[in-house]
Amino acid sequence: MSDSQNLIKIAYLYEDLMNTYGDSGDIKILSYFLKQKGYQVQVDNISIDTPSFNAFDYDFLFFGGGQDFEQTVVAKDFPRFRDTIAKYIEDGRPFLGVCGGYQLLGSYYKTADGTVIKGLNILPFHTIFNPKNRMVGNTEYDCEFGRVHAFENHSGCTYFDDTKILKPFGKMIEGNGNNPEYHTEGMRYKNTIGCYSHGPLLKNTNVAKGILKMVLAAHAKRMADETTVKA
Ligand code: GLN
């Protein structure tokens, strides 16, 4: 394999601002599995000091959770990446957003103090704080990759605005997931998955292996695209 064929490129969105809940563990686990398969892994922190960003230069986009304040800061910068991320998602390339990183793909997140944090409005859902209580605790659910054990810690309740487009990622056994009413966890649209699962999520190796397959397929596609451009 040539160097570029052997190199998996991961864009970690705002890792420096949105990693309060240890979601960087997802990238560590994914990198471990990729290295076991003989790949090299490059992880770029795409943040407020990144001059420009083309999502199609990457095989996987990851966005973890954060606190409301950091989300407000990130939400001000994030729109400059909207176009490339929307095209990447629509093209079926893999994106995993956890909690705050999930919320910011929707239209908005209204926090407990009434602040409306605008999302990229790429996918039809919105999030509103839970007036009763913050949702903190263990979660258990079934998804396409099998049983998942995770941990949630959020005040935002996510509601789908178009159930034809968005499908729930998981069916709850324990905990809240999207909100206390749906009994579902997260959403799936093409190869984009959003969820409230910390823990980190990919300690569930069944999910890690499912995501790994998506990443390798995206890598093969990117390599094919590069060959077409060069030819
Ligand atoms: N700040 C958001 C909320 O409380 C997201 C939290 C998180 O990322 N865990 O809903």
TrEMBL record:
Active-site residues, record numbering mapped to chain: 99, 198
Superkingdom: Bacteria
Keywords: Cell shape, Cell wall biogenesis/degradation, Glutamine amidotransferase, Hydrolase, Ligase, Peptidoglycan synthesis
GO molecular function: carbon-nitrogen ligase activity on lipid II; glutaminase activity
Entry EC no(s): 6.3.5.13, 3.5.1.2
Catalytic function, reaction form: beta-D-GlcNAc-(1->4)-Mur2Ac(oyl-L-Ala-gamma-D-Glu-L-Lys-D-Ala-D-Ala)-di-trans,octa-cis-undecaprenyl diphosphate + L-glutamine + ATP + H2O = beta-D-GlcNAc-(1->4)-Mur2Ac(oyl-L-Ala-D-isoglutaminyl-L-Lys-D-Ala-D-Ala)-di-trans,octa-cis-undecaprenyl diphosphate + L-glutamate + ADP + phosphate + H(+); L-glutamine + H2O = L-glutamate + NH4(+)
Domain CobB/CobQ-like glutamine amidotransferase: residue ranges: 9-204
Pfam families reported in the protein's UniProt record: GATase_3
Keyword Nucleus: no
Database matches in Gene3D superfamilies: 3.40.50.880
Chain positions recorded as substrate binding sites: 134
Protein's pathway: Cell wall biogenesis; peptidoglycan biosynthesis
Function of the protein: The lipid II isoglutaminyl synthase complex catalyzes the formation of alpha-D-isoglutamine in the cell wall lipid II stem peptide. The GatD subunit catalyzes the hydrolysis of glutamine to glutamate and ammonia. The resulting ammonia molecule is channeled to the active site of MurT.
Similarity comment text for this entry: Belongs to the CobB/CobQ family. GatD subfamily.
Assembly and binders: Forms a heterodimer with MurT.
Protein name according to UniProt: Lipid II isoglutaminyl synthase (glutamine-hydrolyzing) subunit GatD
